[in-house]
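debug: dumping io for the single-chain case to check the tokenizer round-trip. Nothing else runs in this session.
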Amino acid sequence: MTSDSPYSDLDRPPLREPALNKAVGRPGGLWRRIEVVAETASTNGDVADAARAGAQEGYVRVAEVQSAGRGRLGRTWSAPPRSGLFLSVLLRPSDVPAARWGWLPLLVGTAARTAVDAVSGVPVKLKWPNDLIVVDDTPSAEATAGGSDPAADAYGAARKLGGILVERVDTAQGPAAVVGLGLNVSLRREELPAPHATSLVLEGAKAADRDPLLRAVLRELERWYTDWSVTGGDPMASGLLSAYAASCATIGRRVRVELPGGEPVVGEAVGLDGDGRLLVRTAAGERAFGAGDVVHLR
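debug: decoded output
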């Protein structure tokens, strides 16, 4: 058995494409094809190319490792092979007004949080707009080892478990959404990319098998996306607004919103508006933010 065999690390077995398609795909369902590849530069880039080539909604591409994974604001995302879930899905929400597409990162976060909590038992929270985090006041030694880093302050008393990247792609069939999700599953202490990162294993997950995790994520995503789409993307009618707000660790906290090319804004995050924008109460009044880097202040 060679060192690059997918079975060289028995704690990290490979995902099996036929079993996933059989378990999650169904007639009339959202997921048309789940493709698992050993390695790629970026699953979001792959799915964007597929969308431009005419791929239908419901295409899923999963990579065992990404060589150029991307996060928000041009950040990189890296992890050892088979140590997490790295996937992108193609959605074409043609019945949803463009103004409501801003809810997609929040929808995916809600679906992923629900699935991960149910399978692993780890109490996941959401950091607006698109991070999955674990929050407490006494971070474990395993999750915080590796020295200090100013970037850790962005999470307050929290550790990052995963992230979401949604990109709009213009295609001949109309606009499409490419939704990427990265989730740290079995990263060990010495493999963490940053001091504020963590993994399900380091958080004491009762189960950290990627196969049932991926199945649960896709099933929850299909459920939330279907409910959201049939209501025309209405966050209240679909229940998305209340579900996201109940799990969002940002709401109720003092935050600093860092804006590209502008002065940071400090205040209390008090809720979300109908477009999924973060409402922040400042000394000068309440403001709504649809984008920006949010820092949780201690």
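debug: round-trip ok. Residues 210-230 form the longest helix (21 residues).
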